[in-house]
Amino acid sequence: MQQVPGQVVAQVIDWFAGVARDLPWRAPDRTPWGVLVSEVMLQQTPVVRVEPVWREWMDRWPTPADLAAAPTADVLRAWGRLGYPRRALRLADCARAVVERHDGVVPDDEEALRALPGVGEYTAAAVRAFAFGRRSVVVDTNVRRVQARAVTGVALPAPTYTAAERRLAASLVPDDDADAARWAAASMELGALLCTARVPRCGTCPLRESCAWRLAGFPPDAHADKRRTQSWEGTDRQVRGRVMAALRSADEPVPRVLLADAGPQPQLDRCLAGLVEDGLAETDDAGRYLLPA
DNA sequence: AATTCGGGGTG
DNA sequence: CACCCAGAATT
């Protein structure tokens, strides 16, 4: 195991105490459900885009029971353009699971959290730490980058999460519940605000003296060649996105011919079938498309 | 281990 | 215009 300077965790926690962003899901009046909702919305979606949607969402559906009772069409419209709308379906499924399995109370143990729809390794750990102040190993894209640089001494982590990274992350987490929760929030914040992917602000980093990447002379990313940027133009995802945008803004069921702008044949039909299969759309008896009730 | 799944801000 | 964002589920 790599030798980690003992001061690293404390330095990041101290830094965080002075600069932590004032996010609504960090407010004293937040609920565990609010934290869970924020974590699902934040999966692959930046904070600035999530914040306004989260506020409206929590105002409208404050508890799991509220969301569990909401029509799917309302949920998908409220999700808006956060992207990956299947997350909205899973979040509604998650609300129903919390109501049915846990009496409407968000569970605080790893097993029960992981069993909820849309809750994976990261989200379960994050909810434990941020909603309940419990020790857990919280590793998101920010934490991966911070430990890759500060400890391992490389520019960026490997494209896929490795067992070595998981072990290193676990070794960094303080034993104490409160300290572990602080480290989780602080290490993520460091990656989000200073140790960023593009242009890291090393000059003001609390770890600038001990950072292994800096001490190694800022070696370049070793797997730059393997990071193929996800294509977008002409993909099913683009076509699906256009269809969903059309259905969200429609007041009544949409005839297929009015969706022709979304993409060429046979791609459009494939995407429409996929959306119906995914539960993101349905057809009425006239074959028109609409958001599911 | 590799793919699929949105959308938009930004350097 | 390529790159990146508090990942999860599926194969």
Automatic annotation (TrEMBL):
Its EC number is 3.2.2.31. GO terms for biological process: base-excision repair; mismatch repair. Its cofactor is [4Fe-4S] cluster. It holds the Pfam family HHH. Keywords: 4Fe-4S, DNA damage, DNA repair, Glycosidase, Hydrolase, Iron, Iron-sulfur, Metal-binding. PANTHER family: ADENINE DNA GLYCOSYLASE. Belongs to the Nth/MutY family. This is Adenine DNA glycosylase. It comes from Isoptericola jiangsuensis.
